[in-house]
Amino acid sequence: MLDTADGPGPDAETLLTALAATVRGPDGRPVPVERVPLDGDAVAALCGAAADGPGVVVPDDDRLAARLPGATAAIVVADRAAGGGVALVARATVDHTHRVAAEAVAAATGGLHRALAGLRAEAAVIGALQSVGRRLTAQLDIDTLVQDATDAATTAVGAAFGAFFYNLVDRFGESYTLYTLSGVPREAFSRFPMPRNTEVFAPTFDGTGTVRSDDITSDRRFGHNAPYHGMPEGHLPVRSYLAVSVISPTSGQVLGGFFFGHPEPGRFTGRHEALAEGIAGYSAIALDNAQLYERERNLTRELSRSMLPEAPAVPGVELVTRYLPASTGHKIGGDWFDVVPLAAGATAYVIGDVVGHGVTAATVMGQVRTAIRSYALLGLAPSEVLRHVSALLDAFADPTFVTCFYAVHTPGDGLVYANAGHLPAVLRHADGTLEQLGEAMAQPLGVGSTFGERTAAFPPGTDLLLYTDGLVESRSRDLTEGIEWLLAAVVGLPRPITGEACDGLVATLTGGAHDDDIALVAVHRTA
Fold first, then answer.
1. Would you tell me how many other CB atoms lie within 10 Å of the CB of residue 238?
2. SS3 78
3. Peptide bond before 341: cis, by omega within 30 degrees of 0?
4. DSSP assignment of 431-480, as one string?
5. Chain centroid to CA 156: how far?
6. Which element (helix H / strand E) includes 314?
7. What is the pLDDT of residue 130?
8. 3-state secondary structure 199-218
9. By the 8 A CB rule, do 104 and 18 touch?
10. Could you tell me if residue 324 is left (phi over 0), alpha (psi between -120 and 50 degrees) or otherwise beta?
11. What number of H helices and E strands is found in the chain?
12. pLDDT tens digits along 76-134
């Protein structure tokens, strides 16, 4: 084959010219030769099975007459890359010189083309592995990851069905085994126990090597273990068997194993084995990443939860609080709320958000919450509480800043509040009208140094709603639009606002898939 990417190049032209010169009449003189472009179907029609061999072919007389009426001879030079080729066609009487030349060229280039075909096949395998690898290593959800890996590997090796048995460690340190299936419904294995570390399965679970068998039922290790002494009754038929360990590249620990089966013997080759081992390698990297992410996510979630208070009962108030860690993504750790009983029956309502996510943000959140609570208990005004905490943040070794809305309600009086760069609170009056409190009052804590105070009436029948940006902002909706949606939703909330109503509000605004923390405080002033 010419194997050029863009049709015949200079080398192809030299070959065509040289071959054309070999087409001669009975007297030994060259005869006129016409170049006829061919598509893939025409090459196949002229060359038959020879189209898959070396790229220079002399068609037999019957094929030539059927495809090129009136031609007396032809040399087909196929071009795999272009999916076609060129025929050098003579219409005068010729001798057999061109056949000898074509056979010589085919013999000289056949090995090269076979090598190129092999390299292309290997490149296709590598490309497929890289594609699977990119998809797997970009996935952080373990359930989705293992199913994708099982499906990809089962397809790649041509198995009738595949399974991936893998180990996880729960938050109590207990190890347990799960599995995914591909090619068959889960019910096909639901009544069978997990594979044990028998002679057949041991190499996979111990990580000592890949097992490939043309017929596992004739393997010397098969059928020796009670209670089944082989496959359990009702098990899917397995003759061809391939099993590959999934081993962590960082710890060397066996994370699990792929198992592939086919009812016919001799279905898995060395190439299938290499594909399965390649996908197992990518799966190990992806599982390491996903488990590390899950551990940090759980640590951050538990750390955040442990630092959040139980809201106390407040006389004259119906109170609902919510903290929801991010349900997708990694944005956990910075949001918090607090309800602080103060002297003379007053109550401080606090909501805030540390800029950043993860364990660091959760730690800063705990420090800031404690500081605000401490200054609040000293009886300082809202502006002074925020000023002292901002100065404290400024002394941290690593610069950070925090948004915070702080309001104090004293019986018989209204609200006194200050806002350090946080989203405005929503006040729903008894007549249903809405008012936003604290818009753009000051810079965040750690940045600003002066925080102004304002007051608002808070008579019986009024609702106060404090929230963080996870409620109103998402990848598909900007903050302004989210606040508009929130205001529209608050109008229809019951009085007093119930826990169920708050849960419904979150579900409505986020669609159940919030990618950031959400903290929420709903306060209803009773008579």
1. 20
2. strand
3. no
4. TS-EEEE-TT-SPPBTT-S----EEE---TT-EEEEE-GGGT-BTTB-HH
5. 19
6. none
7. 65
8. CCCHHHHHCCCCEEECCHHH
9. no
10. beta
11. 11, 19
12. 888 766 678 898 999 998 888 888 878 777 776 655 555 555 555 555 555 555 666 56
Torsion of the alpha carbons at 388, 392, 394 and 400, rounded to the nearest 10: -110
3-state SS record for 352-419: EEECCCCHHHHHHHHHHHHHHHHHHHCCCCHHHHHHHHHHHHHCCCCCCCEEEEEEEECCCCCEEEEE
Q: What is the DSSP letter of 345?
A: G
Mean pLDDT of the chain: 82
Helix H or strand E encompassing 483? helix 479-491
Contacts 24+ apart (CB under 8 A), 252-255: 252/207, 254/167, 254/205, 254/206, 254/207, 255/166, 255/167, 255/284, 255/287, 255/288
What confidence score (pLDDT) does residue 302 get?
66
Question: What tokens does 498 get?
Answer: 């119930």
Question: Please, which residues bridge with residue 168 across strands?
Answer: 176
Chain-centre distance of CA 333, in angstroms?
Answer: 22
Instruction: Report the 10 Å Cβ neighbour count for 426.
Output: 19
Do residues 286 and 137 lie in contact, with contact meaning Cβ atoms separated by under 8 Å? yes
Q: Which amino acid is it at 512?
A: G
Q: Name the 3-class secondary structure at 493.
A: coil
Say how far apart CA 286 and CA 145 lie, in whole Å.
Answer: 8
Which pLDDT does position 330 carry in this prediction? Answer: 52
Q: How far apart are the first and last CA of the chain?
A: 91
459-472 b/e with 16+ CB inside 10 Å = b?
A: eeebbbbbbbbbbb
Tokens 């373990």 locate to 142
d(CA 192, CA 174): 22
Joined together, the tokens standing for residue 182 give 């591909």
> Distance between CA 92 and CA 64 in Å, rounded?
14
Half-sphere exposure of 494 (CA within 13 A, CB side): 11
Position of tokens 């061919």?
Answer: 38
Q: What angle do CA 338, 342, 347 make, to 5 degrees?
A: 55
Report which of 194, 212, 199 is spatially closest to residue 256, judged by C-alpha positions.
194
Amino acid identity at 284 = A
Say how far apart CA 214 and CA 262 lie, in whole Å.
10
* β strands within 227-298, DSSP E: 240-247, 254-262
Phi then psi for residue 302, to 5 deg, are -65, -35
DSSP code for 48: G
Assess contact for 153 and 129: CB atoms under 8 A: no
Taken in order 53, 54, 55, 56, is the CA torsion positive or negative?
Answer: negative
Whether residue 410 contacts residue 376, with contact meaning beta carbons closer than 8 Å, is answered with no
- Predicted TM-score (pTM) of the model is 0.53
